[in-house]
Input
Amino acid sequence: MRKEIQIQGSLSQVFLLFAIWLTFFEVAVPVQELTEQNHLPLESELAKSPSYELFDPIEISPAAFPHYSVPKEPLPPLYPTFPTTYDPVLSGKCPVNFSAISSILDRTASDCSLPLAALVGDVICCPQFSSLLHIFQGYYSLSSDELVLKNVVADDCFSDIIRVLVSQGANYSIDTLCWLNSSILTGGSCPVKDVHSFEKRVNTSQLLEACETVDPLKECCRPVCQPAIIDAALQLSATQLTIGSSRKIIGGAVDAITDCKMVVYSWLSRKLSSEAANTAFRILTACKVNKVCPLNFKQPTEVVQACHNMAAPSPSCCSALTTYVGGIQKQMLITNKQAIICATMFATMLQNAGVMTNIYQLCDVDLKDFTLQAFGQQGCLLRSLPVDVIFDNSSGYSFTCDLNDDTEAPWPSSSMASFSLCAEKSLAALPTSNSSGAPGAYNYIVFHSQFFITKNVNCFPSKRSCMLFIAFFPC
Output
């Protein structure tokens, strides 16, 4: 009897243990699944990529990143998404090996990335895209004696260039954004389009010497390469122009000179390495870009009404000015030199409307207030020297900003007889070093995400960095 009771007791214990184990299993499975669904991969997991051959492009496998079953749900905070890359389908009618200029293509795709192109189009994307087209044109001409492309081939090649860039994450409307089309590859109305005729008319040794190495600090104020290009274009267009000449140049001649400049760029691209040519073209474009304010100013009616005849700080005036400037801050990123021009232009508008008091000073308006803001309080002014958007597989997009932009916005006065961005006094607050680690610079890191439009950014002055987060996290 005692043995039977012991057996029954043992069976009861086994059954009880089984019931407890089954209950734990039923609870543990959902918890494990929930944990897996909410698991954020470590940086080491994100960095994993399939094996690749030496010198081949690094491709990130989609399997390296987590997938979420409900696409409408927002991604976890602080987790960046990355541009979708794929193999482009080309026309097959453009006889160019694009891999030969892959480095310039990669740089252009990064500079014109889908979420950033519209914000940096004027100062980064479009200058780099234009440079790419010049370099492509020169590379294409290496296989022939022609410095330009035929119209039909130009159309096919231009479309293929766009396809390649978009496949690497670039904005699909880059051509519209930059106002460029295939005609830039054809030479247009320039009467000279072949190498032999070009080198017969142009002093090529002088041209190459002037543009082989372009000084980024001197070219914009004491140009060397720019006049050499213009002189070559004049020689090609058979149009002679002297300073102070009273002759009027008809529109056709002006177009011919412009088109011949494209031919000159093509010839330079043949003679220079792609990196040297890209550096030169970007510096030349920067000289042009930094002479113009790219912002759109609407009529400041409210500011004029609130600030008219004001001699002391006024809450209503500063509120109206802050509101107006807040609208400007949503447009785009600009350079420090552009900010000087934009601030001067807006101040002139106010003065012409009757606001004579320096309300920039009264309302504490700085140069950085005229550019896109980070976290609503930190303006990012790009340097006047050419910069690129850098893409990193772990941190996303980044570019260098200027920390020396806490300079009061200039208010024109009658004592300002002349204003020049080349004057040392005017540029005292601008950086002279292009090192991202030097004082006066910080990295602006952007996480490409579906919430990019919110522009929520945290800034860390001690680290000289800003990050665009997917979710809002107060400082």
Remarks:
- The chain has a mean pLDDT of 75.
- Strands lie at 373-374, 378-379, 381-382, 390-392, 396-402, 441-446, 457-460, 465-468.
- The first strand starts at residue 373 and ends at 374.
- The two ends are 75 Å apart (CA to CA).
